[in-house]
Amino acid sequence: MNIPSQITTLLAGILLTLISFWYGQNHNLLPVEASKNAASVDNLFNAMLTIGTGIFLLVTGILIYSAIKFRRAPDDTSDGPPVHGNIPLEILWTAIPAIIVLGISVYSFDVYTAEGGMNPMDHSMAHGKAHHQVAAQPGSAIAATLISQAEPTQQKAESVLQDPATNAVREDIPKRKEAPTLGTVTQPQVGSSPEKAGKPPEVVINVTGMQYAWLFTYPGTEVVAGELHVPLGRDVLINISANDVLHAFWVPEFRLKQDAVPGREAELRFTPTREGQYPLICAELCGAYHGAMRTIVVVEPQEAYDTWLQSQQVASAHTLDQAIAANPATMTAEQYLAPYAHEMGLSPEILDQLRPHNGHS
Amino acid sequence: MTQAAQIQEEANQFAHGNKPGNWKEYFSFSTDHKVIGIQYLVTTFFFYLIGGVLATLVRTELATPESDFVSREVYNSLFTVHATVMIFLWIVPGATGGFGNYLIPLMIGARDMAFPRLNALAFWIIPPTGLMLMSSFLVGAPGAGWTNYPPLSLVSGKAGEMIWILSILLLGTSSILAAVNFIVTIFKMRVPGMGLNQMPLFCWSMLATSFLALIATPVLAGAMILLSFDVLIGTAFFNPTGGGDPIVYQHLFWFYSHPAVYIMILPIFGMISEIVSVHSRKPIFGYKAIAYSSIAICGLGLIVWAHHMFTSGTPPWLRMFFMITTMVISVPTGIKIFSWLATLWGGKLDMSSALLFAMGFICLFVIGGISGVMTASVPFDIHVHDTYFVVAHLHYVLFGGSVFGLYGGFYHWFPKITGRMMSEAWGKVHFWLTFIGFNLAFMPMHKLGMEGMNRRIAEYDPKFATLNLICTIGAYLLAVSTIPFIVNATWSWLRGKPAGDNPWRALTLEWMTTSPPPVENFEADPVLATGPYDYGMGNRATEVDVPFSEADDPSLSAGPSSTLRAKPDPVAAANPSDRGDESYNRE
Questions:
Q1: Which residues contact B126 (CB under 8 A, 6 or more apart)?
Q2: Nearest CA of chain B to the CA of A356: how many Å?
Q3: What is the pTM of this model?
Q4: How far is CA B122 from CA B115, B179, B217, B379, in A?
Q5: pLDDT at position B24, please?
Q6: For position B576, what pLDDT does the model report?
Q7: DSSP state, B22?
Q8: Structural domains in chain B, sorted by start
Q9: A52 in contact with chain B, both atoms CB, cutoff 8 A
Q10: Mean pLDDT of B465-494
């Protein structure tokens, strides 16, 4: 082997490394990051893409180089050199990929732990807020004594159903019991990140999937909404279940997905970090209109979130109280318009801006 | 200077079958493994075309964001039946039943498979089952995806569901019968003098495949029977409203269906090993490493299934376990890839269509492997699971991998099967159309999936319209690309240039008899005068970049004394240095 070929090899290696690193950072393949854990998932992907690009370029480079350099002359019928193998080389290309994939495993484990995958159920005692509010509901005292005797996962499911609005939208499907050994087997979730371990989530929202819609209920309120609103920068826990078939709750911008399984209470915990509207998609085939089963998640500041929740409460109170004898004449303009405004996706502030402020003039 | 191929041919003159087979019997009911192999190949290729038509319809629907081509129900049936046909009626029976049946007895010097009638039975299950699956379109085809997850599969049309379940049961049975046959044939019917470490690599990969099929398929059958009870008589094994658990179905299903991926790719790995070595005129690099890595994949392939379920119902410890096993399985696969590259390196590449497809396979399979490692990583998989990223990944593995390999196999063994050469020019047209069409159709899907396009949808966000249109154009190109192949194969079969017995000057035993081989293959037992990959064996003094011979340490030498080499039968070896005492493979 002569020196110039070594220099070419070296240069090719450097070029390959540079291209891999450049592409690993500038691939433009992922949507914006809108949750706290999204950045770490993206960094993991960038790392894997860098390594992957390097390997792809190496393999394709060798293929193309061989196709050009080692092409047989048309009249040459002799065989190539009888090289049968080389153990040090075999060890090298066994060891290097092994180290790479174990490295990726450790890195993935790290990211998974940081987004809370390894801390499931640590906050199952933390539904205090919901408990206090449902305590005002008739019959909840009996339910509370019943659930205290149930085993943890059923207890969790029961506590979710304590919320009357959630109870109303959910089908009564037998709940899976916990497997007796080996930790939590039946209740899938991405739990709290280590720094939030043991702390109750700041916002709890229940999600129910059905053919072909998502229904969101906000424990402590009577609100049943068709779109998800979450306050910016708060620690949100989503309880996910389904009424009929499998669905999957997916927000690409959050890099989070969880199947909604009838009879199981799954959960996702995340912190939205970027204001905006993002698609919320059903990712598990659920029937003919699977492709149409999508809504939006709105990440908005706490005040806007509170206003929205109140307007929804007004709307649902309105539908509850006035459903039988709806008399538009007794309503204020806001009360009357709230459900329509909601259907059109308008927030109360926009309505407020549109309204002529004659009271102040 | 005498070439290795000449040595092997001369040594096997006495075994050479002289009466060429009569082509008409290839169209009759027969227990001859070659007839059955051809029946498998032709039947499964026919189903491949049907699956391709279904895929083209799916892509036509997806050319525009709206659901405007077929109804949503029909769309769901299209992709469900497309996947079922491609997996269970094309790649699995085509690779194992077709090439396996044709080649295994020839490669090990046997007269036929161990159980010829069982073999015929395994084949004759397939055509009626395939037609039955097609007929489901008349009664409302299954539309719950090829995974057929309950509870959706329990609430869709009963007739279509039952047809699907029955098809899978029958095709699974066929696959189990074939697997038993291959294992017995490979263990018991090798020609004297051929130890396990002297088998061609295709035999190793078929052995690994058959073990996988034998262990995993019964589990799928069990799941199918339970599911049919749920559908038919209202039991609640998987139905949550009755207290059943749909996640249990997913475990049972993937316990088969992940190994099924290896059932589809391992035979192809074996075929690529043969093609690369023959067409680059070099011994396969690291014979034993490639052979044993197939066995490693077989073992590891059984403990990675739950990586399909990272977002469904798996607790953290289980996610981590399956992430690590899935990552580890890429190591034996990597060994094969690098060994093939090392085989090509420094060889004398004839750049025939077979080799082109093999090199295309390596290039595309590496992409599928890289995206496979990415999806094995739990946090990233939580984002891309059930998206077009996964669709891209699986097509890079199953089309870029398996189908490219199958095409390579067709070009390589066509002269043996028919006795005639295929047209190289049309082969190259076929390759480039397929290669370009394939990448156009599936490369953009990686981006679509990561950006937020989920799988199995008839309508999608208009922001994905451009990339989807590119995919559809690629799919049409892919559909067109089969035409040169069909024309070439038909024309060559009837009018092609006569091939002779060994047009590629290969060393494995299937080339040591007539093309096409006569009934019972050989006149007498063939011998291994050379190893299966001893190209360049007459020339033992070549200088190469790796240490060629280390007399005192054979583990470091790269040449014929390498411990990784598949050696010839010591009794019949042509080269004096390969001769030894009586081979313990001879009784």
A1: B40, B43, B44, B89, B93, B97, B171, B174
A2: 37
A3: 0.88
A4: 11, 10, 14, 42
A5: 64
A6: 78
A7: P
A8: 4-512 (1.20.210.10)
A9: yes
A10: 95
Q: DSSP string spanning A210-239?
A: ETTEEEEE-TTS--EESSEEEETTS-EEEE
In this complex, the residue of A59, A182, A184 whose CB is nearest that of residue B363 is A59
Cα nearest neighbour of B316 on chain A: A118
Token readout for B518 is 């006569």
Which of A79, A172, A247 to mutate to test binding with chain B, by most B CBs within 10 Å of its CB?
A: A79
First-to-final CA distance of chain B? 34
Residue A2 CA, chain-centre distance (Å), reads: 55
Does B351 touch chain A if contact means CB atoms closer than 8 Å?
yes
Token pair in block for residue B490: 């038909």
Average pLDDT over residues B541-551: 55
Which residues in chain A touch residue B545, judged by CB atoms under 8 angstroms apart? 1
Cα B105 from Cα B22, distance rounded (Å): 19
If pLDDT is split at 50, 70 and 90, which confidence band does A223 have? confident
Report whether B534 contacts B507 (CB < 8 A): yes
Whether the pLDDT of residue A180 is over 80: the answer is no
| DSSP for residue A328 | G
CA–CA dist B114, B181 (Å, integer): 6
Side-chain-side CA neighbours of A361 within 13 Å: the count stands at: 4
Instruction: Report the alpha-carbon distance of residue A256 to residue B380 in Å, rounded.
Output: 9
Average confidence (pLDDT) over A100-119: 87
Nearest CA in chain B to A244: B151
Task: Output the DSSP codes for B237-269.
Answer: SS-GGGT--HHHHHHHHHHHHHHHHHHHHHHHH
ipTM tops 0.90: yes
Tell whether B500 is within 8 A of chain A (Cβ).
no
**Range in A108-112, B59-63, B366-370 the model is least confident about:** A108-112
Is A97 at the interface with chain B, CB within 8 A? yes
Q: For testing the chain B interface, which of A2, A83, A101, A175 should be mutated: the one with the most B CBs within 10 Å? A: A83
Choose the closest CB to B320 out of A109, A284, A292.
Answer: A109
**Six token digits for residue A35:** 């949750």
pLDDT of residue A133 exceeding 50, the answer is: no
With cut-offs at 50, 70 and 90, classify the pLDDT of residue B408: very high
What is the distance between the alpha carbons of residues A199 and A190, in angstroms, rounded to a whole number?
15
Sheet containing A276-282: order of strands: A228-231, A294-300, A276-282, A247-251, A256-260
Instruction: Kindly list the distances between the CA atom of residue A237 and the CA atoms of A126, A231, A281, B130, B569, in Å, as whole numbers in the listed order.
Output: 11, 12, 18, 48, 68
Decide: B212 and B175 in contact? Cβ < 8 Å.
no
Of residues A81, A88, A246, nearest to B556 (C-beta): A88
Best probe of the A interface among B61, B230, B238, B377, by most A CBs < 10 A, is B377
Q: What is the 3-state secondary structure (H, E, C) of B479-521?
A: HHHHHHHHHHHHHHHHHCCECCCCCCCCCCHHHHCCCCCCCCC
Phi first, then psi: give them for residue A71, nearest 5 degrees. Answer: -65, 135
φ, ψ at A214 (rounded to 5°)? -105, 135
CATH class in words for A128-176+186-300: mainly beta
Q: How confident is the model at residue B75 (pLDDT cuts 50, 70, 90)?
A: very high
B228 and B249 Cβ atoms separated by less than 8 Å: no
Which residues, at least 6 apart from A7, have a Cβ–Cβ distance to it below 8 Å?
Answer: none
Q: Which residues of B touch A93 (CB under 8 A)?
A: 334-335, 338
The residues of chain A that CATH labels 2.60.40.420 are 128-176+186-300
**Which among B575, B583, B469 is positioned nearest to B531, based on CA atoms?**
B575
What are the strands of the beta sheet with A236-242, ordered from one edge?
A189-190, A266-270, A236-242, A203-210, A213-217, A224-225
Q: Does A54 touch chain B (CB under 8 A)?
A: no
